[in-house]
Here is the input.
Amino acid sequence: MIRFAKVEDITHLLKIEQSCFVTDQLSRRNFRYLLTKAHSQTLIYEAEGVVKGYALLLFSRGTSMARLYSFAVAPAFRKQGIAQALLKAVEDCATDYDCVSLRLETRQDNIAMQHLVKKNGYKKFGIIANYYEDHMEALRFEKSLAPQLDRSLVKVPYYQQSLDFTCGPSALMMAMHALDNNVKLDRRMELRIWRESTTIFMTSGHGGCSPYGLALSAHQRGFEVEIYVNDLGTLFIDSVRNPQKKEVIKLVQEDFLSNIQQRSITVLHSSLKVADIRVKFEQGAIPLVLISSYRIYREKFPHWVVVTGFDDKYIYVHDPFVDDKEEETYTDCINMPILQKDFEYMARYGKSAQKAVLIIKLRQTVPS
Here is the structure.
């Protein structure tokens, strides 16, 4: 019988953990947190009163993606179909949570697990070096739980932001490289674009990047940019209390807009819905969208993501931020599926629901 685990099962789970893994073992504290506080579900296989295996599933907040975080069958009960039954139950659970895809990682030397997932339709899509405590690399697998969806994706390289406040530059770098593979993805470029596009102040700490500053950075590197904003006022200013800082942010935006006017960059005071963004995407552009991070990370700060694709229900994005606190890896942030109706609410920031979208395109050359 497969059922959801309870706190009272932790002792049984620890016994399986210790019998299956030499390194990277989950502790009693880990299990308690995962069973009581995390956005997760743990399934156990029990027969004749004995817990013989378990599967631990993590759900990504705000997205329609699940991750099989840990999976184990006690050595004495292997080759009895338990692993297959658990994997099927995990997929059903993820589907019940409206997840469109399930991802997992496994040790490079875990041939049995690789055979199991490949047999069940999982495809390898990444390798993470030095992932485990003994420096063994991890192989990353993914399965679509909605194979009827016809995904339209472009090959956008992934770049993880190296600082808390450089999501904008990182997203822009990914978009530019997707259009022109001569664009370098490195930290020097990340910091250079941040210096060019920062608003200087945010709620606390270093400033975030405005759509106007990012547009200027893209334009001066040879790209055509359209800016869509729904707010004619100064962006991000509501999150700052200090009057002097507010004045600085206002002056920075005025300077950005003056430079934009001189370069004839298109600024449209309107909102782009997901359907409109899809049209731009299908015309060959790469959209950058400002979202509120609250729906994913439960923290209120403006955040930039880059759109990588669509299907009938979902929009897919690369998120440059990797949430280490939630045990994420960079591959969790690639082509993240988000329900289009949820993204409509996510793509706004602050009490005034400020919206901003950048459409990045290759600049058209005029025939001589």
User: Anything to note?
Assistant: The domain at 2-148 is CATH 3.40.630.30 (Aminopeptidase). The longest strand covers residues 50-59. The mean pLDDT is 89. Residues 97 and 296 are 15 Å apart (CA to CA).
